[in-house]
């Protein structure tokens, strides 16, 4: 069972196995057994601090990442809370969970709590009954059937007994490739046209869809909400969200703006990508930046269209560039197009911008790549030392796409400027055009 080192991380995405269980049940010993290393990271002290949490393991020709959640103590206080928090992290980052129980002790209340979390998440679980060093203890392992997790695998992490059968079971539940739900959703993409009043939303919609309200029934076998419109663009079908709100403008004065902003938020919520229309002939306003922030905070892909470009002369252009620099720094990643909805000028460029934003929104970085990248980044630009301590990134994983969301496992809290630095470098390395990125951290104290 050769354990490969950091430098030959494979290119493909590796499935992740999280090892969880109460302190002292033998998680670290078992992780060492799985990765096939002799020198123990284990010490006879519970909760001892270890420097790495993720390792690569190979069994029967298949390679996967093993994450030892042993040392995590994310904010939780009591033992039960800590174990539950571990389980939640494991569920978040792993494709499968190895749940380790000390067979000589049997089931405890915190074990039951973990089982609840695992069952609710529907993650595949392999149950290891550890410290079964000899035949005699095997009977005690059998009592772990009561956890309802299926067959307990009796193992001795210390001596290696039974670890082959357990590893076979692990391979049986680990996916070969990332699960299917990572794939792009079926059906037309959902687009919201947003922007403050009079920037040209309905003019653009009319350009794209024609003056007539287009069919909204199940043209392609898709059920569409009556306020949405199916529009054919660049050879593909797109669903434009809440076009009713754009076409039939609510004219009643009272609370108009309030309802308009509610509608905007709802449309963003239902969309995958938003086209933010800005009237380029007028100075950018707070209302513009507020809508843009809503898109980014909601985690949707974003394209910015500067409309009424026919009204933009050289002087205005000069000021607009300054306004963009000043007001739109936080969405520098969004594709920008200049258009004139009224004449149709450059409106055809919208599809390409939408496509690239959605690509960025659904970009997935394999765990191996991500950690190779993080390793380089941290080596070149370590986190500044604070009060004699240096926060460290131990392991990272992309928990989801749409939008790309990363979880960093750290020792010590990584500061916000450093997180922003990581975001910038992630974008340089992997793209993410048109998409916000979320980075969260799990701090081990
Ligand atoms: P963790 O806190 O869950 O990571 O547990 P460790 O791996 O640090 O192990 C805790 C203690 O249990 C150590 O003293 C280990 O040597 C011991 N231990 C681990 N696995 C076994 C085993 O299979 N049999 C026996 N007898 N002791 C074990
Ligand atoms: P909405 O409130 O955002 O839907 O904006 P409308 O589409 O109703 O447009 C508001 C006004 O801007 C109308 O008088 C449009 O004719 C005008 N308009 C829209 N697009 C353009 C454009 O590209 N150039 C110019 N010059 N005017 C435009």
Automatic annotation (TrEMBL):
The keyword GTP-binding applies. The keyword NADP does not apply. GO terms for molecular function: GTP binding; ribosome binding. GTP 1 binds at residues 21-28, 68-72, 130-133. Residues 15-178, 189-362 form the EngA-type G domain. InterPro entries: AAA+_ATPase, G_ENGA, GTP-bd, GTPase_Der, KH_dom-like, KH_dom-like_a/b, P-loop_NTPase, Small_GTP-bd. Keywords: GTP-binding, Nucleotide-binding, Repeat, Ribosome biogenesis. It comes from the Bacteria. GO terms for biological process: ribosome biogenesis. Pfam families: KH_dom-like (PF14714), MMR_HSR1 (PF01926). GTP 2 binds at residues 195-202, 242-246, 307-310. SMART domains: AAA. Belongs to the TRAFAC class TrmE-Era-EngA-EngB-Septin-like GTPase superfamily. EngA (Der) GTPase family. HAMAP family: GTPase_Der. PANTHER family: GTPASE DER. Associates with the 50S ribosomal subunit. GTPase that plays an essential role in the late steps of ribosome biogenesis. This is GTPase Der. It comes from Aeromicrobium marinum DSM 15272. The lineage of its organism: Bacteria, Bacillati, Actinomycetota, Actinomycetes, Propionibacteriales.
